[in-house]
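The data are quoted verbatim for reference:
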Amino acid sequence: MRCVFICIIICFSLPLAAQDSLLKERNWLFKTAKQLESVHEFSRDKTTPLACDLLKNKRIVLLGESSHGIADLYTIKLEIISLLHRTQGFDVVLFEGGLADFGLTNKEASKLTSAQMMNNTVYKNWRCREMLHFFDSLKAWQQINMPMLIGGFDVLYSSDLFLEKLLEITSTFDQSLHKRISRQFTRLNSLQHEWNRDCQRNEELAIAIEAFFSRYHHQIISQGKVDEISLKLLKRAAYNYVQYWNPEIWSKHGNLQYAVRDYLMGENIKWAADSVFPGKKIVVWAHNSHTGTKIPPFTLGGVKLTAGDVVKTRYIDSCYSIGIFATNGEAFNHSTGKVETFDSNPLFAGLRKKVLFLDFRSLAKSPENHWLFQPLFMYQTESGGKMTLTDSFDAVVFLNDVKASKPLPD
């Protein structure tokens, strides 16, 4: 009877202890984090850490997002970029998008509408009403003589612009390659999961395109097809595909397509910082799974596989990574084409503010914040699972009660 009584006490005590622990963790978060009433306050509140000295001596800010289907994530990223552009001298945004697509658009930006710029650059899962505001801001900054440049760093193309320019140029100089590109080019963006004969064909086409640009470099420039900067980007895009379909690189990265892509994206960010935008301060816009470090399932045998890992290896002290997470609300799932609701973790229930910003500098582990130092489930539409936030980012932003993005028709 005594044993039964003890078991009953334990059964009631454990849930109470867990609730008490959760309450202490939540109170620590509210007390420690910078809290804001709305996402728009981020660029207006002069006491926001990013408006102070947090990014002093930082050249690259890696700005993540937990899903490509949440409107509030895009809004707060625009607010952060506006703040950094206005107060910290950041005047380049590199996107998770086609390197050549962005480069060619950047050259013609003054002649294009915001919608045209968006459709020429970002992937379809970013073509939404909220994202259009970013391109409107680019236009506005240009008009007040505070231009913001854009670029892409993905090895894959994100619009038809690169292909259209490639077909235009090859039709003049090499009809055989022109026809081959027309038949096969879309396969270069394939997300193969293992090396096979199709991969070899893709590598052969990529090598042929790269050789074409080297062979006809002077003729392309002299006939005004593109300028030197645009041709430089086109050649880099071709080089990217040669690397993307190189079996030795696949082998080095565990024959995992996403690992090869992330490695090359990181190399492209470094290349853009050194060769395209030397000396400029850069914001990198991508998913958390690309900007963060040591993120499962990207860690493989000690090889650094995320773009964030690659960049931080070069810019150890001058790079700052911010993970942005939605804690609850709605998200548009691009796989299903539907809006879904979610709650990521009981810890964030009852958030009193819309935005919480938490910097990890000199943060000591304690019983109240131990959850930051261990794998934690966070809602991620594209790459669900657990991550250790303090391993992956220098700071995090938590957003409460978010709304789904609204895709625009093609």
User: Anything to note?
Assistant: The chain has a mean pLDDT of 88. The chain has two domains: 31-158+259-399, 161-255. The radius of gyration is 23 Å.
